[in-house]
Amino acid sequence: MAVSEDFEKLLQLSGVEYIGKGSGEVAKSLAQRWEMLRAVFSRGASWGVSSMSAQGGAMQAEKEFWLVADCELILYGATEPDAFVTVAGRKVVLNTDGTFSMRFALPDGGMALPIRAMSADERDSREMNMVISRRTEQNQ
To answer: How many domains does the chain have?
Structure first.
């Protein structure tokens, strides 16, 4: 239960979705989300009823079945509160307890997130490399 509560706390604290991304990546992510929202809300209040057609003399609603989905990556971790941390070469601001979390758009393809922490006295360091891939398949 405590792990779940800590995870929820990290999610709430994250709120920095675009840290670690360049302006081009931010623009692409926002454009993708805008298109997804536009597609969802352009369906109208009827949620899928797109038009009326006559079949056998009676008017019937034509329903267009649809699905929209996306996902994001949440990277979270912890180290000593006074450490210096970078993700993909960019400085990470640690919370007072040494935790951190970041949200990333997760487009199709591969992505590497090298993580480095250095102690405040610069005597110790640790490194990790998260390698993530996503492949979305659409069946029509």
So the answer is: 1
